[in-house]
Amino acid sequence: MKALVLERDKELVWREVPEPVRPGPEWALVKVAFSGVCNSDLHRGFGGGAYRYPLIMGHEFSGTVIEAPAGGGFASGDAVTAFPLIPCRVCAACRSGDHYRCVSYDYLGSRRDGAFAERVWVPAGNLFRVPAGVELLHAALTEPCAVARHAASKADLPPGATVAVFGGGPIGNIAGQWLRLNVAARVIVVDVDDRKLALAHSMGFEPLDARAGDPVEALHERTGGMGVDAALEAVGLPLTFRQVLAAVRHGGQSVLMGNIRGSLTLEEREVSSLLRREVTIRGTWNSRVAPEGANDWTESLARMGRGIDVAPLVSHVVPLAEGPGIFRRIMAGGEYFAKVVFIP
Q1: Which domain holds residue 166?
Q2: Residues 98 and 184 in one domain
Q3: What are the tens digits of pLDDT across the range 257-307?
Q4: Can you tell me the distance from the alpha carbon of 62 to that of 78, in angstroms, rounded to the nearest whole number?
Q5: Residues 135 and 14 occupy one common structural domain
Q6: Residues 188 and 234 in one domain
Q7: Is 165 strand, coil or helix?
Q8: 287 within 8 A of 149, measured Cβ to Cβ
Q9: How many domains does the chain contain in total?
Q10: CA separation for the pair 128, 60 (Å, rounded)
């Protein structure tokens, strides 16, 4: 089969690779229909963040089952997406249903080969059936939808809350949709990109251009001097981490989800302010796949197109063979990319 292979840092090649070998009897072979690019793929492929070389990246995907284990609940032809984290299922976190906190996990597209390929083996226990009416293109965004839902759930807020999301990219936008759907009457999206701000406005959010001045001051002005009830960081910069901590009201909540790049230093006055305002700070990573039938993944699939709209976030749908050029263009900057989805 063919795959997009990370041969070494900054070197992606579309080439023939050996047919993948079934890792175990409980694994299913999936024909990849669509696979999305995550910001973590940029760090992994172009920032020396890979665990090994060569590596086939790709952990956001959808497809159809080619071969499934007996009794696994799936059959050839089933439309599926997959939780990319492969838990050990024996540690304390796994036994309590917190698989994303597993202390000894594997990971598709990171620690093992993933879905930037024509086919990929996946544990049958990691598969989720795509409901009728949900396009496979959109189902490929289930993973970021689930991650965004998990982050949004960290903010324990009453209905009608005002929330700021720092970062108008796909994850931040989807998190804003979950917050609006669940508790928030007002979602303010903070960004510096005109296209992301315009998209946020078109989706019913209140845009705030951080280039126009201090966004923390602007958020306080828009809330009568109080600050927002909660702020979610979906950028990954030390500056936006500090802004998210400063933007919330007394007793407010800050949710940190961006993979930070750089060192974060808080001054004495900032720490004192956090203490005096009694701000709750929550970290978040990945998503929940338990309990069965009521988790971040099943809820994301159930809500797709019914409260959670991912279609406007897809800016490029291109053949996987064009992957090397697409990644070079993304890394070069100057060109607008939201969610890039490959077709193997």
Answers
A1: 155-283
A2: no
A3: 999 999 999 999 999 999 999 999 999 999 999 999 999 999 999 999 999
A4: 11
A5: yes
A6: yes
A7: strand
A8: yes
A9: 2
A10: 13
